């Protein structure tokens, strides 16, 4: 099978086309950055940039007689129904989904080597065909199709159209298998509906992993039957002292189901042994001194630790991991491991030696923040790097050494990928401990070259975490995630050969009308040549 890291002559040619198309729409931004450039053609503005793009002559026009066809009745059919649901409100058309006969939009599962998530989209006068080897590829192709239509297609009321799908052929597959976003539902609690809204935003950009930070000092957010006070008491507040909340198991399953319907895998995190005040407050017996601390609603870190020497700590870990693993169809269970400043190094290593096998016992693969590499990462474990460009050489070397010994890496450098960092010093929300992270800074780096010495195969992908000490509403999420989230998605999906800030910023600008149509409020960075509002 062709490797997407290697560039064949054919790909080189079509990549050249893409870059030309993008360049034709770009302008040189000098001292006066305000002038909006001419809009790139729809094929040239897709985010994340596809692996190859060949513009065609004639567009396909969706009309009131358009039919959507998917073979069979399984997952491919459900992707077709999802597409119909997307298109019906704004077009006002019936768009029936069928399994046979002529159709303007066809979703085809084939044995062609598109990989687990790749697809080919062909659009011309006679129709649109999306072909993939697996339903996930059809789903990602549908996200591309959305972006080939006018932004008004995202509206929830009938619009006039015309509904032209730009003509051409896109052949596409991801650079990395792990393309994640994290939502911290502990510092502020977010409802199932709010999480679903974020899932839909992630899906538009082909992100396929939703990491939920389910526990921290300020709140425990998932029901655990064997330790009911974790959620009932430990989930009863949040940063600032609001009422907090938690997911019942039924609600959590609904998040997992909804994410799966958008081809996202949920990665649940229980952060241990630090960041555990909510648990320690809920059960006095978990504390070394047998005394429960009060609930905590501030934003300090590093003051709490599970009691590594107590047997009950591992009963607790076993019960929590067992119940969470049973709720989790996904492969991973994240055990945190960051900022354990109140745990000695020796205790930290002991704790990780005892808890990682519990994760394996319940059939899951460990993910930990990269401090896990200072202990003994289990075979197959993934470490999530959240250091900075200028993190010390010794710490980076420890991560690189682990990668050389088989630990996989998820890259979330905090001064690039943290969506909670302020854009500028004037940004009202967010934090600045990792620095100010404007849009260009968040996009303009290469995951493949970020940690020299780490084997290329160790880099499994990237993730954009959104910590929520200062983030409490949908609008807050939108403002911090947009426009940086699409850049994170592009770093995970697009071939390195497409990477170009000058081309990207033009494609990014062209997303703004879509966000307006979707009701997403975003930061109008002066680095991006936005169209007039
Ligand atoms: C982290 O930001 N403490 C992982």
TrEMBL record:
Where's the active site on this chain? 339
What UniProt keywords are attached to this protein's entry?
Glycosidase, Hydrolase, Signal
Instruction: Tell me what reaction this enzyme catalyses.
Output: Hydrolysis of terminal non-reducing N-acetyl-D-hexosamine residues in N-acetyl-beta-D-hexosaminides
InterPro entries this protein is in? Beta_hexosaminidase_sua/sub (IPR025705), GH (IPR017853), Glyco_hydro_20_cat (IPR015883), Hex-like_dom2 (IPR029018), HEX_bac_N (IPR015882)
E.C. designation(s): 3.2.1.52
Kindly give the SUPFAM superfamilies that the UniProt entry links to this protein: (Trans)glycosidases, beta-N-acetylhexosaminidase-like domain
Signal peptide limits? 1-31
Question: What are the protein's GO molecular function terms?
Answer: beta-N-acetylhexosaminidase activity
User: A GO biological process this protein is involved in?
Assistant: glycosaminoglycan metabolic process
Pfam family membership, one: Glyco_hydro_20b
Transcription as a keyword? no
Segments forming domain Beta-hexosaminidase bacterial type N-terminal = 45-172
Keyword Signal assigned to the entry: answer is: yes
Domain Glycoside hydrolase family 20 catalytic: from-to ranges: 176-495
Q: Under the cellular component aspect of Gene Ontology, which terms does the record hold? A: membrane
Q: Into which family does the record put it? A: Belongs to the glycosyl hydrolase 20 family.
Return the protein name.
beta-N-acetylhexosaminidase
UniProt source species? Streptomyces sp. R39
Question: What taxonomic classification does the UniProt entry list for its organism?
Answer: Bacteria, Bacillati, Actinomycetota, Actinomycetes, Kitasatosporales
């Amino acid at each position: 099978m062709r490797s997407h890291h290697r560039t064949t002559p054919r790909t080189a040619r079509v990549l050249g086309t893409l870059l030309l198309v993008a360049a034709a729409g770009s302008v040189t931004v000098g001292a006066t950055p305000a002038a909006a450039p001419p809009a790139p053609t729809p094929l040239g503005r897709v985010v994340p940039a596809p692996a190859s793009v060949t513009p065609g002559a004639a567009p396909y026009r969706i009309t009131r007689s358009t039919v959507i066809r998917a073979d069979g009745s399984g997952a491919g059919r459900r992707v077709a129904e999802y597409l119909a649901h997307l298109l019906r409100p704004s077009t006002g058309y019936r768009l029936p989904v069928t399994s046979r006969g002529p159709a303007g939009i066809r979703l085809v599962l084939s044995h062609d080597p598109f990989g687990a998530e790749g697809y080919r989209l062909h659009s011309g006068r006679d129709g649109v065909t999306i072909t993939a080897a697996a339903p996930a590829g059809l789903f990602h192709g549908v996200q591309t199709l959305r972006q080939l239509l006018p932004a008004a297609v995202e509206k929830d009321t009938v619009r006039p159209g015309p509904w032209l799908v730009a003509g051409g052929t896109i052949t596409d597959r991801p650079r990395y298998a792990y393309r994640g976003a994290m939502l911290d539902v502990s510092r502020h609690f977010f409802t199932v509906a709010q999480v679903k809204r974020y899932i839909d935003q992630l899906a538009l950009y082909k992100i396929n992993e939703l990491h939920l930070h389910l526990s921290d000092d300020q709140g425990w957010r998932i029901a655990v039957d064997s330790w009911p006070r974790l959620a009932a008491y430990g989930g009863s507040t949040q940063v600032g002292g609001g009422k907090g909340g938690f997911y019942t198991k039924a609600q959590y399953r609904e998040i997992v189901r909804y994410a799966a319907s958008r081809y996202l895998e949920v990665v649940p995190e229980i952060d241990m042994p630090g960041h555990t005040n909510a648990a320690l407050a809920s059960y006095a017996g978990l504390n070394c001194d047998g005394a429960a601390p009060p609930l905590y609603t501030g934003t300090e870190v590093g003051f709490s630790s599970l009691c590594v020497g107590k047997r009950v700590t591992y009963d607790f870990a076993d019960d929590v991991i067992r119940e969470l693993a049973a709720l989790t169809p996904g492969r991973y269970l994240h055990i945190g491991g960051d900022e354990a400043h109140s745990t000695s190094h020796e205790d930290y290593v002991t704790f990780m030696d005892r808890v990682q096998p519990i994760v394996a016992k319940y059939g899951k693969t460990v993910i930990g923040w990269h401090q896990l590499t200072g202990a003994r990462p289990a075979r197959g474990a993934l470490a999530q790097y959240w250091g900075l460009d200028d993190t010390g050489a010794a710490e980076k070397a420890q991560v690189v050494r682990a990668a050389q010994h088989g630990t996989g890496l998820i890259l979330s450098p905090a001064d690039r990928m943290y969506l909670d960092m302020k854009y500028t010093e004037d940004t009202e929300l967010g934090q600045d401990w990792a620095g100010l992270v404007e849009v260009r800074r968040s996009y303009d780096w290469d995951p493949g070259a970020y940690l020299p010495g780490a084997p290329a195969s160790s880099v499994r992908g990237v993730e954009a975490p959104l910590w929520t000490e200062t983030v409490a509403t949908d609008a807050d999420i939108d403002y911090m995630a947009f426009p940086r989230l699409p850049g994170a998605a592009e770093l995970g999906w697009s071939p390195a050969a497409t990477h170009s800030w000058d081309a990207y910023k033009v494609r990014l600008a062209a997303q703004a009308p879509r966000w307006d149509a979707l009701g997403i409020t975003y930061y109008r960075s002066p680095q991006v040549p936005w169209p007039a509002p």
